[in-house]
Specification:
The protein is mainly alpha-helical and 47 residues long. It has 2 helices and no strands. The chain has one domain. Helix 1 crosses helix 2.
Length: 47
């Protein structure tokens, strides 16, 4: 049973981290859209 709780705890942490990353990315794209745009253009050039 302890293993299940450990997995759930880690899953919760991962979800929280992902949500935080998503929030940061939305804030960045709202405040600094040119940053993301230039990065996307660079990625396209590399392809």
């Amino acid at each position: 049973m302890k293993g299940i709780f450990k997995v759930l705890k880690y899953a919760g942490v991962i979800i929280i981290v992902l949500e935080a990353v998503k929030t940061v990315m939305t804030k960045v794209s709202e405040n600094y859209p040119e940053l993301l745009e230039t990065k996307e253009k660079q990625d396209v050039k590399q392809l």
